[in-house]
Amino acid sequence: MKALTFSLLAEPEERLDLSGLTPASLAGLTEIQIAKLHVGTSRKPALVGDVFKVTGKDVNSLIVEGSSPWLDRVGAGLNGGTIRVTGNVGSQAGRKMSGGTLLVEGSAGDHAGSGMAGGRLEIKGNAGDYASGPLAGEMTGMEGGVLIVRGKAGHYAGDRLRRGTIAVLKGCGDYAGYRMVAGTIVVTGRVGAMPGFLMKRGSLLLDRRPENLVPTFMPCGEPDIAFSRLFDRFLIREKILDKPLLGQKPGKYGGDNAVLGKGEILFRRGR
Amino acid sequence: MQQLTRNGVLIDDTFAEAFGMRATAIIITAPTLKWARQAAITMTGFATSVIGCGCEAAIDMDVPETKTPDGRPGCRVMIFAMGTDDLQKQLKTRLGQCVLTSPGSACFADLEGSAPLDLGNALRYFGDGWQISKKFGGRHYWRVPVMDGEFLCEATTGLTKNAVGGGNLLFLAADNAKALHAAERAVAAIEKEPGAIMPFPGGVVRSGSKVGGKYKGMMASTNDAFAPTLRGVVNSALTPDINAVLEIVIDGETSDAVAAAMRAGLKAVIDLGPKKGALRISAGNYGGKLGKFHYHLKDLLP
After folding, report:
1. How close A255 comes to chain B (CA, Å)?
2. Which residues in chain B touch residue A165, judged by CB atoms under 8 angstroms apart?
3. A135 contacts: CB under 8 Å, gap ≥ 6
4. Residue A165 and residue A175: Cα distance in Å, rounded?
5. Shortest CB distance from A225 goes to which of B133, B137, B149?
6. pLDDT in tens, B49-108
7. Which CATH superfamily hosts domain A69-267?
8. How confident is chain B (302 residues) per 10-residue block, as mean pLDDT?
9. Is there a contact between B143 and A227 if contact means CB atoms under 8 Å apart?
10. Cis amide linkage into residue A224, ω under 30° from 0
11. Per-residue pLDDT tens digits for A255-269
12. Closest residue of B to A221, CA-based?
Protein backbone atom coordinates (compact mmCIF):
# COMPACT_ATOMS: atom_id res chain seq x y z
CA MET A 1 0.00 0.00 0.00
CA LYS A 2 1.34 3.42 -0.93
CA ALA A 3 2.18 5.81 1.87
CA LEU A 4 -0.47 8.41 2.66
CA THR A 5 1.12 11.53 1.19
CA PHE A 6 0.30 15.16 1.87
CA SER A 7 1.80 17.30 -0.88
CA LEU A 8 1.91 21.00 -0.07
CA LEU A 9 0.17 22.87 -2.90
CA ALA A 10 1.67 26.31 -2.19
CA GLU A 11 3.34 28.24 0.59
CA PRO A 12 0.65 28.36 3.31
CA GLU A 13 -0.99 31.68 4.11
CA GLU A 14 -1.05 31.03 7.84
CA ARG A 15 0.90 28.90 10.33
CA LEU A 16 -0.34 25.33 10.11
CA ASP A 17 -0.76 22.96 13.06
CA LEU A 18 -0.14 19.47 11.69
CA SER A 19 -0.50 17.66 15.03
CA GLY A 20 -3.67 16.01 13.73
CA LEU A 21 -1.81 14.22 10.96
CA THR A 22 -0.49 11.16 12.75
CA PRO A 23 -1.16 7.47 12.03
CA ALA A 24 -3.25 7.12 15.19
CA SER A 25 -5.50 10.11 14.54
CA LEU A 26 -5.96 9.37 10.83
CA ALA A 27 -6.75 5.67 11.27
CA GLY A 28 -10.22 4.83 10.04
CA LEU A 29 -10.87 8.21 8.41
CA THR A 30 -12.07 8.41 4.81
CA GLU A 31 -10.37 10.60 2.21
CA ILE A 32 -13.19 13.14 2.55
CA GLN A 33 -12.92 13.22 6.33
CA ILE A 34 -9.16 13.73 6.09
CA ALA A 35 -9.59 16.55 3.58
CA LYS A 36 -11.90 18.34 6.04
CA LEU A 37 -9.53 18.25 9.02
CA HIS A 38 -8.50 21.65 10.34
CA VAL A 39 -4.82 22.45 10.01
CA GLY A 40 -4.91 26.25 9.98
CA THR A 41 -4.51 28.32 13.11
CA SER A 42 -6.34 31.54 12.16
CA ARG A 43 -9.96 32.48 12.82
CA LYS A 44 -11.00 30.74 9.60
CA PRO A 45 -8.56 27.87 9.67
CA ALA A 46 -7.44 26.16 6.50
CA LEU A 47 -8.46 22.53 5.94
CA VAL A 48 -6.18 19.73 4.84
CA GLY A 49 -7.79 19.83 1.40
CA ASP A 50 -7.04 23.56 1.06
CA VAL A 51 -3.31 23.26 1.46
CA PHE A 52 -2.41 19.67 0.58
CA LYS A 53 -3.03 17.26 -2.24
CA VAL A 54 -3.63 13.93 -0.53
CA THR A 55 -2.68 10.64 -2.22
CA GLY A 56 -1.99 7.11 -1.03
CA LYS A 57 -3.72 5.01 1.60
CA ASP A 58 -1.26 3.64 4.19
CA VAL A 59 -1.83 5.68 7.35
CA ASN A 60 1.02 3.95 9.17
CA SER A 61 3.50 5.54 6.83
CA LEU A 62 2.84 9.23 6.26
CA ILE A 63 4.77 11.54 3.96
CA VAL A 64 4.55 15.31 4.01
CA GLU A 65 5.89 16.62 0.73
CA GLY A 66 6.80 20.24 1.03
CA SER A 67 8.92 22.67 2.91
CA SER A 68 7.84 25.65 4.95
CA PRO A 69 8.77 27.23 8.28
CA TRP A 70 5.03 27.44 8.92
CA LEU A 71 4.53 23.67 9.11
CA ASP A 72 4.29 23.56 12.91
CA ARG A 73 3.81 20.61 15.23
CA VAL A 74 4.51 18.00 12.59
CA GLY A 75 4.22 14.58 14.20
CA ALA A 76 3.15 16.02 17.54
CA GLY A 77 1.80 13.24 19.75
CA LEU A 78 3.09 10.54 17.39
CA ASN A 79 2.89 7.18 19.13
CA GLY A 80 3.57 4.70 16.35
CA GLY A 81 4.19 4.39 12.64
CA THR A 82 6.36 6.71 10.60
CA ILE A 83 6.17 10.25 9.29
CA ARG A 84 8.62 11.62 6.76
CA VAL A 85 8.82 15.27 5.79
CA THR A 86 10.74 16.04 2.62
CA GLY A 87 11.65 19.63 3.51
CA ASN A 88 11.86 22.10 6.38
CA VAL A 89 9.33 22.32 9.18
CA GLY A 90 8.37 24.95 11.73
CA SER A 91 8.36 24.78 15.49
CA GLN A 92 7.53 21.93 17.85
CA ALA A 93 8.12 19.08 15.40
CA GLY A 94 7.57 15.80 17.22
CA ARG A 95 6.28 17.59 20.30
CA LYS A 96 5.29 15.07 23.02
CA MET A 97 5.79 12.14 20.68
CA SER A 98 5.93 8.82 22.51
CA GLY A 99 6.70 6.30 19.79
CA GLY A 100 7.23 5.76 16.09
CA THR A 101 9.65 7.54 13.81
CA LEU A 102 9.61 11.09 12.55
CA LEU A 103 12.13 12.00 9.89
CA VAL A 104 12.57 15.62 8.83
CA GLU A 105 14.77 15.76 5.74
CA GLY A 106 15.21 19.51 6.00
CA SER A 107 15.63 21.71 9.04
CA ALA A 108 13.33 22.21 12.01
CA GLY A 109 12.40 25.31 13.99
CA ASP A 110 12.45 25.89 17.73
CA HIS A 111 11.33 23.31 20.28
CA ALA A 112 11.87 20.33 18.00
CA GLY A 113 11.06 17.16 19.96
CA SER A 114 9.73 19.25 22.82
CA GLY A 115 8.80 17.01 25.74
CA MET A 116 9.09 13.85 23.70
CA ALA A 117 8.81 10.63 25.70
CA GLY A 118 9.68 7.93 23.19
CA GLY A 119 10.28 7.09 19.56
CA ARG A 120 12.89 8.48 17.22
CA LEU A 121 12.98 11.98 15.78
CA GLU A 122 15.66 12.57 13.19
CA ILE A 123 16.34 15.95 11.64
CA LYS A 124 18.74 15.87 8.72
CA GLY A 125 19.27 19.61 8.70
CA ASN A 126 19.52 22.03 11.61
CA ALA A 127 17.27 22.48 14.63
CA GLY A 128 16.33 25.80 16.22
CA ASP A 129 16.61 26.77 19.87
CA TYR A 130 15.30 24.68 22.77
CA ALA A 131 15.59 21.35 20.96
CA SER A 132 13.63 18.82 23.09
CA GLY A 133 12.97 21.49 25.71
CA PRO A 134 9.76 22.29 27.56
CA LEU A 135 7.43 25.08 26.60
CA ALA A 136 7.18 28.05 28.93
CA GLY A 137 5.68 26.99 32.25
CA GLU A 138 6.37 23.28 31.85
CA MET A 139 8.49 21.56 34.46
CA THR A 140 10.20 18.86 32.38
CA GLY A 141 11.65 18.57 28.91
CA MET A 142 12.28 15.38 27.02
CA GLU A 143 11.50 12.19 28.96
CA GLY A 144 12.59 9.44 26.60
CA GLY A 145 13.33 8.40 23.07
CA VAL A 146 16.04 9.52 20.68
CA LEU A 147 16.41 12.93 19.03
CA ILE A 148 19.03 13.21 16.31
CA VAL A 149 20.00 16.51 14.72
CA ARG A 150 22.40 15.81 11.86
CA GLY A 151 23.13 19.51 11.42
CA LYS A 152 23.50 22.23 14.05
CA ALA A 153 21.24 22.90 16.99
CA GLY A 154 20.54 26.34 18.41
CA HIS A 155 20.81 27.53 22.00
CA TYR A 156 19.46 25.66 25.02
CA ALA A 157 19.50 22.22 23.36
CA GLY A 158 18.22 19.62 25.82
CA ASP A 159 16.73 22.12 28.26
CA ARG A 160 15.42 20.25 31.33
CA LEU A 161 16.15 16.89 29.71
CA ARG A 162 15.03 14.12 32.03
CA ARG A 163 15.61 10.91 30.13
CA GLY A 164 16.47 9.78 26.62
CA THR A 165 19.24 10.59 24.20
CA ILE A 166 19.86 13.69 22.11
CA ALA A 167 22.58 13.72 19.48
CA VAL A 168 23.64 16.90 17.68
CA LEU A 169 26.25 16.21 15.05
CA LYS A 170 27.50 19.57 13.77
CA GLY A 171 27.75 21.59 16.92
CA CYS A 172 25.29 23.56 18.96
CA GLY A 173 24.75 27.00 20.44
CA ASP A 174 25.09 28.17 24.01
CA TYR A 175 23.76 26.47 27.15
CA ALA A 176 23.55 22.91 25.79
CA GLY A 177 22.04 20.74 28.50
CA TYR A 178 20.72 23.76 30.36
CA ARG A 179 19.00 22.73 33.63
CA MET A 180 19.07 19.08 32.62
CA VAL A 181 17.79 16.64 35.23
CA ALA A 182 19.18 13.42 33.72
CA GLY A 183 19.54 11.77 30.32
CA THR A 184 22.25 12.01 27.72
CA ILE A 185 23.25 14.67 25.20
CA VAL A 186 25.85 13.93 22.54
CA VAL A 187 27.42 16.80 20.64
CA THR A 188 30.02 16.46 17.94
CA GLY A 189 31.42 19.70 16.60
CA ARG A 190 31.75 23.04 18.31
CA VAL A 191 29.80 23.61 21.48
CA GLY A 192 28.79 27.14 22.44
CA ALA A 193 29.25 28.82 25.78
CA MET A 194 28.44 27.28 29.13
CA PRO A 195 27.46 23.71 28.26
CA GLY A 196 25.70 21.97 31.13
CA PHE A 197 24.82 25.23 32.87
CA LEU A 198 22.74 24.37 35.95
CA MET A 199 22.58 20.67 35.10
CA LYS A 200 21.67 18.51 38.10
CA ARG A 201 22.38 15.05 36.76
CA GLY A 202 22.90 13.46 33.38
CA SER A 203 25.63 13.27 30.80
CA LEU A 204 26.94 15.64 28.19
CA LEU A 205 29.16 13.68 25.84
CA LEU A 206 31.43 15.72 23.59
CA ASP A 207 33.94 14.84 20.89
CA ARG A 208 36.40 17.48 22.16
CA ARG A 209 37.42 19.23 25.35
CA PRO A 210 34.77 21.84 26.16
CA GLU A 211 35.69 25.51 26.08
CA ASN A 212 33.81 28.24 27.92
CA LEU A 213 32.80 26.01 30.81
CA VAL A 214 30.95 27.38 33.79
CA PRO A 215 33.44 27.71 36.70
CA THR A 216 31.22 25.44 38.78
CA PHE A 217 32.31 22.41 36.73
CA MET A 218 35.31 20.62 38.21
CA PRO A 219 37.80 18.36 36.43
CA CYS A 220 37.32 14.71 37.44
CA GLY A 221 40.27 13.06 35.73
CA GLU A 222 40.45 10.61 32.88
CA PRO A 223 38.74 7.48 34.12
CA ASP A 224 38.89 4.21 32.18
CA ILE A 225 35.19 3.36 32.21
CA ALA A 226 33.23 0.67 30.43
CA PHE A 227 30.31 3.03 29.94
CA SER A 228 32.03 5.08 27.24
CA ARG A 229 32.63 1.97 25.17
CA LEU A 230 29.11 0.71 25.72
CA PHE A 231 27.63 4.03 24.66
CA ASP A 232 29.96 4.38 21.67
CA ARG A 233 28.70 1.04 20.43
CA PHE A 234 25.10 2.11 20.97
CA LEU A 235 25.64 5.26 18.87
CA ILE A 236 27.16 3.23 16.05
CA ARG A 237 24.51 0.50 16.24
CA GLU A 238 21.74 3.10 16.02
CA LYS A 239 23.51 4.65 13.01
CA ILE A 240 23.76 7.95 14.87
CA LEU A 241 27.54 8.08 14.45
CA ASP A 242 29.83 5.98 12.30
CA LYS A 243 32.84 5.99 14.60
CA PRO A 244 33.37 5.93 18.38
CA LEU A 245 32.64 9.21 20.14
CA LEU A 246 34.43 9.04 23.48
CA GLY A 247 36.98 6.27 23.11
CA GLN A 248 38.46 4.30 25.94
CA LYS A 249 39.46 6.93 28.48
CA PRO A 250 37.36 10.06 28.16
CA GLY A 251 38.06 13.17 30.17
CA LYS A 252 35.49 14.14 32.74
CA TYR A 253 34.16 17.28 34.37
CA GLY A 254 31.64 17.03 37.20
CA GLY A 255 28.94 19.60 37.82
CA ASP A 256 27.09 21.83 37.81
CA ASN A 257 28.04 22.45 41.42
CA ALA A 258 25.92 25.56 41.45
CA VAL A 259 23.06 23.10 41.77
CA LEU A 260 23.07 19.38 42.62
CA GLY A 261 26.42 18.70 40.95
CA LYS A 262 25.83 15.09 39.98
CA GLY A 263 26.04 15.68 36.26
CA GLU A 264 29.03 14.99 34.06
CA ILE A 265 30.66 16.22 30.91
CA LEU A 266 32.60 13.40 29.29
CA PHE A 267 34.76 14.33 26.32
CA ARG A 268 37.13 12.68 23.90
CA ARG A 269 40.69 13.58 24.79
CA GLY A 270 43.36 14.60 22.34
CA ARG A 271 41.35 17.18 20.42
CA MET B 1 20.87 -54.60 32.61
CA GLN B 2 21.15 -54.55 28.84
CA GLN B 3 24.29 -53.01 27.48
CA LEU B 4 25.29 -51.52 24.17
CA THR B 5 28.84 -51.18 22.95
CA ARG B 6 30.41 -48.29 21.10
CA ASN B 7 34.12 -48.33 20.19
CA GLY B 8 34.63 -51.01 22.83
CA VAL B 9 33.00 -48.91 25.57
CA LEU B 10 30.00 -50.48 27.29
CA ILE B 11 26.97 -48.21 27.53
CA ASP B 12 24.38 -49.04 30.17
CA ASP B 13 20.78 -48.99 29.01
CA THR B 14 19.81 -46.50 31.67
CA PHE B 15 18.97 -42.83 31.96
CA ALA B 16 19.95 -39.67 33.76
CA GLU B 17 17.14 -38.22 35.81
CA ALA B 18 17.00 -34.41 36.04
CA PHE B 19 14.83 -31.74 37.60
CA GLY B 20 13.23 -28.47 36.58
CA MET B 21 15.15 -25.47 37.92
CA ARG B 22 15.19 -21.67 37.72
CA ALA B 23 18.20 -20.16 35.99
CA THR B 24 19.69 -16.92 34.82
CA ALA B 25 22.71 -15.89 32.80
CA ILE B 26 24.95 -12.85 32.83
CA ILE B 27 28.01 -11.67 30.94
CA ILE B 28 30.92 -10.41 33.02
CA THR B 29 33.49 -8.32 31.19
CA ALA B 30 36.83 -6.90 32.25
CA PRO B 31 39.88 -5.24 30.67
CA THR B 32 41.35 -8.69 29.98
CA LEU B 33 39.92 -12.19 29.72
CA LYS B 34 42.01 -13.15 32.73
CA TRP B 35 40.17 -10.70 34.96
CA ALA B 36 36.77 -11.44 33.46
CA ARG B 37 37.35 -15.11 34.23
CA GLN B 38 38.66 -14.25 37.68
CA ALA B 39 35.46 -12.41 38.55
CA ALA B 40 33.40 -15.25 37.11
CA ILE B 41 35.37 -17.97 38.89
CA THR B 42 35.09 -16.12 42.19
CA MET B 43 31.38 -15.57 41.70
CA THR B 44 30.79 -19.23 40.91
CA GLY B 45 32.94 -20.55 43.73
CA PHE B 46 31.17 -22.66 46.35
CA ALA B 47 28.28 -23.21 43.97
CA THR B 48 28.48 -26.91 43.19
CA SER B 49 25.16 -28.13 44.48
CA VAL B 50 21.92 -26.53 45.65
CA ILE B 51 21.96 -28.96 48.58
CA GLY B 52 24.70 -27.09 50.39
CA CYS B 53 25.50 -23.97 48.40
CA GLY B 54 22.08 -22.47 47.64
CA CYS B 55 22.75 -22.49 43.93
CA GLU B 56 24.72 -24.15 41.18
CA ALA B 57 26.83 -21.91 39.03
CA ALA B 58 29.69 -21.99 36.56
CA ILE B 59 31.10 -20.31 33.49
CA ASP B 60 29.13 -21.31 30.41
CA MET B 61 31.66 -19.99 27.93
CA ASP B 62 34.10 -17.22 27.18
CA VAL B 63 32.68 -14.42 25.06
CA PRO B 64 35.04 -12.65 22.63
CA GLU B 65 35.18 -8.87 22.73
CA THR B 66 33.29 -8.63 19.44
CA LYS B 67 30.27 -10.25 21.09
CA THR B 68 30.15 -8.45 24.46
CA PRO B 69 28.04 -5.33 25.03
CA ASP B 70 31.02 -3.12 25.90
CA GLY B 71 33.57 -4.56 23.50
CA ARG B 72 35.82 -6.03 26.18
CA PRO B 73 36.55 -9.72 26.70
CA GLY B 74 34.11 -11.50 28.93
CA CYS B 75 32.49 -14.71 29.95
CA ARG B 76 28.96 -15.96 30.31
CA VAL B 77 28.02 -17.21 33.74
CA MET B 78 24.93 -19.28 34.49
CA ILE B 79 23.34 -19.64 37.91
CA PHE B 80 20.74 -22.26 38.81
CA ALA B 81 18.53 -22.56 41.88
CA MET B 82 15.35 -24.34 42.89
CA GLY B 83 13.27 -21.19 43.42
CA THR B 84 13.15 -17.59 42.19
CA ASP B 85 13.80 -16.11 45.64
CA ASP B 86 16.84 -18.34 46.19
CA LEU B 87 18.17 -17.40 42.79
CA GLN B 88 17.71 -13.68 43.40
CA LYS B 89 19.40 -13.86 46.78
CA GLN B 90 22.38 -15.81 45.47
CA LEU B 91 22.70 -13.56 42.43
CA LYS B 92 22.69 -10.40 44.54
CA THR B 93 25.20 -11.54 47.14
CA ARG B 94 27.59 -13.15 44.67
CA LEU B 95 27.42 -10.14 42.36
CA GLY B 96 28.03 -7.74 45.22
CA GLN B 97 30.87 -9.63 46.85
CA CYS B 98 32.61 -11.15 43.83
CA VAL B 99 31.94 -9.11 40.68
CA LEU B 100 31.55 -5.57 42.02
CA THR B 101 34.82 -6.11 43.86
CA SER B 102 36.80 -7.46 40.91
CA PRO B 103 39.08 -4.94 39.10
CA GLY B 104 37.64 -3.35 35.98
CA SER B 105 34.55 -5.55 35.93
CA ALA B 106 31.20 -4.83 34.29
CA CYS B 107 28.12 -6.99 34.24
CA PHE B 108 25.36 -7.44 31.66
CA ALA B 109 22.17 -9.46 31.31
CA ASP B 110 22.37 -12.38 28.94
CA LEU B 111 19.05 -14.13 29.17
CA GLU B 112 15.66 -13.07 27.89
CA GLY B 113 13.38 -14.63 30.43
CA SER B 114 9.88 -14.73 31.74
CA ALA B 115 10.63 -12.38 34.63
CA PRO B 116 13.37 -9.91 35.62
CA LEU B 117 15.96 -10.52 38.34
CA ASP B 118 17.75 -7.56 39.88
CA LEU B 119 21.40 -7.03 39.01
CA GLY B 120 22.41 -3.38 39.21
CA ASN B 121 19.07 -2.54 40.82
CA ALA B 122 20.26 -4.48 43.85
CA LEU B 123 23.77 -3.01 43.94
CA ARG B 124 23.28 0.62 43.00
CA TYR B 125 23.04 1.81 46.60
CA PHE B 126 26.72 1.05 46.97
CA GLY B 127 27.11 4.30 45.03
CA ASP B 128 25.87 6.23 48.08
CA GLY B 129 23.95 8.72 45.97
CA TRP B 130 26.59 9.01 43.24
CA GLN B 131 25.24 6.09 41.20
CA ILE B 132 24.13 7.04 37.71
CA SER B 133 21.15 5.53 35.94
CA LYS B 134 21.34 5.26 32.15
CA LYS B 135 18.54 4.09 29.89
CA PHE B 136 19.23 3.73 26.20
CA GLY B 137 18.65 1.25 23.42
CA GLY B 138 15.80 -0.32 25.39
CA ARG B 139 18.09 -1.27 28.25
CA HIS B 140 18.75 0.12 31.70
CA TYR B 141 22.19 0.36 33.26
CA TRP B 142 23.65 1.53 36.54
CA ARG B 143 27.06 3.14 36.86
CA VAL B 144 28.48 2.95 40.36
CA PRO B 145 31.64 4.93 41.14
CA VAL B 146 34.40 2.72 42.58
CA MET B 147 38.09 3.14 43.26
CA ASP B 148 39.28 2.11 39.77
CA GLY B 149 36.61 4.04 37.90
CA GLU B 150 33.09 2.74 37.59
CA PHE B 151 31.24 -0.51 38.03
CA LEU B 152 28.88 -0.70 35.07
CA CYS B 153 25.99 -3.08 35.62
CA GLU B 154 22.76 -3.72 33.78
CA ALA B 155 19.72 -3.10 36.01
CA THR B 156 18.13 -6.51 35.57
CA THR B 157 18.62 -9.82 33.85
CA GLY B 158 16.10 -12.47 32.83
CA LEU B 159 14.91 -15.54 34.64
CA THR B 160 13.98 -18.78 32.90
CA LYS B 161 11.74 -21.41 34.41
CA ASN B 162 12.61 -23.89 31.68
CA ALA B 163 16.06 -24.72 33.03
CA VAL B 164 17.03 -28.29 33.88
CA GLY B 165 19.47 -29.41 36.54
CA GLY B 166 20.96 -32.84 37.17
CA GLY B 167 21.82 -34.26 33.77
CA ASN B 168 24.74 -36.59 34.38
CA LEU B 169 27.17 -39.17 33.07
CA LEU B 170 29.13 -41.77 35.06
CA PHE B 171 32.47 -42.91 33.73
CA LEU B 172 33.56 -46.30 35.04
CA ALA B 173 37.25 -47.04 34.49
CA ALA B 174 39.98 -49.49 35.41
CA ASP B 175 41.82 -46.95 37.54
CA ASN B 176 41.66 -43.37 38.77
CA ALA B 177 43.90 -41.95 36.07
CA LYS B 178 41.77 -43.39 33.29
CA ALA B 179 38.54 -42.27 34.93
CA LEU B 180 39.97 -38.77 35.25
CA HIS B 181 41.20 -38.81 31.68
CA ALA B 182 37.72 -39.74 30.46
CA ALA B 183 36.09 -37.11 32.65
CA GLU B 184 38.48 -34.41 31.43
CA ARG B 185 37.72 -35.27 27.82
CA ALA B 186 34.00 -35.07 28.51
CA VAL B 187 34.37 -31.73 30.31
CA ALA B 188 36.34 -30.28 27.40
CA ALA B 189 33.64 -31.38 24.95
CA ILE B 190 30.73 -30.15 27.07
CA GLU B 191 32.38 -26.76 27.65
CA LYS B 192 31.91 -26.10 23.95
CA GLU B 193 28.16 -26.63 24.22
CA PRO B 194 26.28 -23.36 24.78
CA GLY B 195 23.74 -23.05 27.56
CA ALA B 196 25.08 -25.89 29.72
CA ILE B 197 27.34 -25.79 32.77
CA MET B 198 29.08 -28.35 34.96
CA PRO B 199 29.05 -26.86 38.46
CA PHE B 200 31.38 -29.28 40.26
CA PRO B 201 35.16 -28.75 40.64
CA GLY B 202 36.57 -28.64 37.13
CA GLY B 203 33.24 -30.05 36.01
CA VAL B 204 33.84 -33.40 37.76
CA VAL B 205 32.35 -34.94 40.90
CA ARG B 206 33.81 -37.97 42.64
CA SER B 207 31.33 -38.19 45.50
CA GLY B 208 28.20 -39.16 43.66
CA SER B 209 25.33 -39.53 46.08
CA LYS B 210 22.15 -41.42 46.68
CA VAL B 211 19.08 -39.92 48.31
CA GLY B 212 19.01 -40.11 52.12
CA GLY B 213 21.22 -42.23 54.37
CA LYS B 214 21.23 -44.22 57.56
CA TYR B 215 21.82 -41.16 59.71
CA LYS B 216 18.95 -38.90 60.59
CA GLY B 217 18.96 -35.59 58.75
CA MET B 218 21.24 -36.66 55.91
CA MET B 219 19.61 -35.59 52.65
CA ALA B 220 22.21 -37.44 50.62
CA SER B 221 24.95 -39.95 51.30
CA THR B 222 27.61 -41.82 49.37
CA ASN B 223 26.54 -43.76 46.31
CA ASP B 224 27.72 -47.11 47.69
CA ALA B 225 26.60 -49.02 44.62
CA PHE B 226 29.28 -47.18 42.64
CA ALA B 227 32.00 -47.11 45.32
CA PRO B 228 34.68 -49.57 44.22
CA THR B 229 36.00 -50.24 47.72
CA LEU B 230 32.56 -51.53 48.72
CA ARG B 231 32.17 -53.71 45.68
CA GLY B 232 32.21 -56.97 47.60
CA VAL B 233 30.12 -55.94 50.59
CA VAL B 234 27.15 -54.02 49.16
CA ASN B 235 24.76 -54.54 46.28
CA SER B 236 27.26 -53.05 43.86
CA ALA B 237 26.74 -51.82 40.33
CA LEU B 238 30.42 -52.40 39.56
CA THR B 239 32.07 -55.33 37.84
CA PRO B 240 35.51 -56.58 39.02
CA ASP B 241 37.40 -54.63 36.32
CA ILE B 242 36.16 -51.24 37.61
CA ASN B 243 38.26 -49.45 40.22
CA ALA B 244 37.23 -45.82 39.84
CA VAL B 245 34.08 -43.94 38.90
CA LEU B 246 33.75 -40.23 38.17
CA GLU B 247 30.60 -38.32 37.40
CA ILE B 248 29.79 -35.21 35.42
CA VAL B 249 26.71 -33.24 36.40
CA ILE B 250 25.15 -30.94 33.84
CA ASP B 251 22.73 -28.05 34.30
CA GLY B 252 21.23 -26.54 31.18
CA GLU B 253 19.25 -23.49 30.15
CA THR B 254 16.81 -25.86 28.45
CA SER B 255 16.26 -29.61 28.31
CA ASP B 256 17.74 -29.61 24.81
CA ALA B 257 20.93 -27.99 26.10
CA VAL B 258 21.34 -30.76 28.67
CA ALA B 259 20.74 -33.43 26.02
CA ALA B 260 23.24 -31.80 23.66
CA ALA B 261 25.83 -31.57 26.43
CA MET B 262 25.37 -35.22 27.39
CA ARG B 263 25.62 -36.22 23.74
CA ALA B 264 28.90 -34.31 23.40
CA GLY B 265 30.29 -35.84 26.60
CA LEU B 266 29.32 -39.35 25.53
CA LYS B 267 30.93 -38.92 22.15
CA ALA B 268 34.18 -37.62 23.60
CA VAL B 269 34.55 -40.54 26.00
CA ILE B 270 33.50 -43.13 23.44
CA ASP B 271 36.05 -41.69 21.00
CA LEU B 272 38.74 -41.96 23.69
CA GLY B 273 38.09 -45.71 23.94
CA PRO B 274 38.30 -48.20 26.83
CA LYS B 275 42.09 -48.54 26.94
CA LYS B 276 42.77 -44.89 27.76
CA GLY B 277 39.50 -43.93 29.36
CA ALA B 278 36.25 -45.46 30.54
CA LEU B 279 35.38 -49.12 30.20
CA ARG B 280 31.75 -48.39 30.77
CA ILE B 281 29.42 -45.38 30.81
CA SER B 282 26.35 -45.16 32.98
CA ALA B 283 24.03 -42.49 34.35
CA GLY B 284 22.41 -41.72 37.68
CA ASN B 285 18.74 -41.79 38.41
CA TYR B 286 16.31 -42.30 41.26
CA GLY B 287 14.08 -44.83 39.55
CA GLY B 288 12.43 -42.18 37.41
CA LYS B 289 9.87 -41.00 39.94
CA LEU B 290 11.52 -37.84 41.28
CA GLY B 291 12.70 -35.97 38.21
CA LYS B 292 10.60 -34.82 35.30
CA PHE B 293 13.40 -35.09 32.74
CA HIS B 294 14.86 -38.44 31.67
CA TYR B 295 17.84 -38.68 29.33
CA HIS B 296 18.31 -42.22 28.05
CA LEU B 297 21.89 -42.90 27.07
CA LYS B 298 20.87 -45.05 24.12
CA ASP B 299 19.10 -42.04 22.58
CA LEU B 300 22.20 -39.86 22.88
CA LEU B 301 24.80 -42.17 21.40
CA PRO B 302 26.87 -40.98 18.44
Report:
1. 12
2. 136
3. A111, A114, A115
4. 17
5. B149
6. 998 899 999 999 999 999 999 999 999 999 999 999 999 999 999 999 999 999 999 999
7. Glutamate synthase, alpha subunit, C-terminal domain (2.160.20.60)
8. 86 95 97 98 96 94 96 97 96 97 97 93 95 96 96 97 96 97 98 96 94 89 95 94 97 97 97 96 89 95 89
9. yes
10. no
11. 899 999 999 999 999
12. B149
Give a three-class secondary structure readout of chain B: CCEEEECCEEEECCEEEEEEEEEEEEEEECCCHHHHHHHHHHHCCCCCCHHHHCCEEEEEEEECCCCCCCCCCEEEEEEEECCHHHHHHHHHHHHHHHHCCCCCCEEEECCCCCEEEECHHHHHHHHCCCCEEEEECCEEEEEEEECCEEEEEECEEEEEEEEEEEEEEEEEECCHHHHHHHHHHHHHHHHCCCCEECCCHHHEECCCEEECCCCCCCCEEECHHHCHHHCCCCCCCCCCCCCEEEEEEEEECCHHHHHHHHHHHHHHHHHHCCCCCEEEEECCCCCCCCCCEEEEHHHHCC
| CB-based contact B81:B159 (threshold 8 Å) | no
Q: Does A117 touch chain B (CB under 8 A)?
A: no
Is A203's CB within 8 Å of B134's CB? yes
- φ/ψ (deg, to 5) at B154: -65, 145
> Which residue type, as a one-letter code, is found at position B204?
V
pLDDT at A245: 96
* Closest residue on chain B to A252 (Cα): B149
| pTM of the model as a whole | 0.93
Complex ipTM over 0.90: yes
Please state the domain extents for chain A.
Answer: 69-267
